[in-house]
Amino acid sequence: MSETTSFQVRDGILDGARQVPSPNYNQRPEHTEIQLLVVHNISLPPSQFGGGYIEQFFQNQLDWSQHPYFQSIEGMQVSAHLLILRSGEVLQFVNFKDRAWHAGRSSYLGQKECNDYSIGIELEGSDDLPFDEAQYQALAAVTACLQQAYPKIQQHLAGHSDIAPGRKTDPGPFFDWPKFRAELHHFKNK
Ligand SMILES: [Zn+2]
Predict the structure, then answer these.
(1) Mean confidence (pLDDT) of the chain
(2) What is the rounded CA–CA span in Å between residue 22 and residue 132?
(3) Which domain holds residue 94?
(4) Might you give the EC number(s) for this enzyme (predicted)?
(5) What per-residue confidence (pLDDT) applies to 6?
(6) Ligand 1 centroid to 169 CA: how many Å?
(7) Could you tell me if residue 45 is inside a domain?
(8) Where are the beta strands (DSSP E) in the chain?
């Protein structure tokens, strides 16, 4: 088993993650506590991995002419706090104290605008391919760390499809929630 990076949250920054600042964020509403973790998948072009296009997209630096699909997302300004690549490498785009733009129109337990009070984690992946073992390991390690820093999210893990049903399908049928929860349990009891 390869050694897993150890993570730590300091001042909204995840030590152990590569910092790739995105301009796509704003302030959370005043006195808003982080209460929810939202899991997504993304790949650019869809179902193709590598290439660095997601990073470019979240940084508003994607060259829309490079692929026909990119034209369908041209000009969109989005972000997530974290992205976990196929290798398990973790990238941070937005400070946890700030509001990333990942959820869109959404609602969780009757509370709208999930971006206001959630942390968004993208897995490099798609709705029609399995995720990599390294991604589950990294996601579990990061989640355990975030739950320590932001205790309210301990009971509140959701997929994008849970908070925007009918509109979003990610993280999709290949995301194995029981496996994720088992790995998370393992990390928390280390
Ligand atoms: Zn999503």
Answers:
(1) 96
(2) 25
(3) 13-188
(4) 3.5.1.28
(5) 87
(6) 8
(7) yes
(8) 8-10, 13-15, 18-19, 25-27, 36-42, 82-84, 90-92, 98-100, 107-108, 111-112, 118-124, 157-159
CATH number of the domain that residue 119 is part of: 3.40.80.10
Q: Is 54 within 8 Å of 120 (Cβ atoms)?
A: no
Q: Which structure tokens are listed for 183?
A: 């790995």
Residues 37-53 have a mean pLDDT of 97
Any domain includes 3: no
Q: Name the amino acid, one letter, at 52.
A: G
Ligand 1: distance of its center to the CA of 170 in Å? Answer: 5
Answer whether residue 67 is part of any domain: yes
Question: How many angstroms does the Cα of residue 151 sit away from the middle of ligand 1?
Answer: 23
Give 70's contacts (C-beta < 8 A, 6+ positions apart).
44, 45, 53, 62, 63, 64
Q: Is residue 56 part of a domain?
A: yes
- Residue count (the chain): 190
In angstroms, the CA 154 to CA 33 distance is: 13
Based on the structure, what is the number of domains in the chain? Answer: 1
Ligand 1 centre from 190 Cα, in Å? 30
CA of 36 to the centre of ligand 1 (A): 14
Residue type at 25 in one-letter notation: Y
Q: What is the pLDDT of residue 187?
A: 83
- Decide: helix, strand or coil at residue 38: strand
Q: Give ion ligand 1 contacts, CB < 5 A.
A: 40, 160, 170
Instruction: State the catalytic residues.
Output: 122
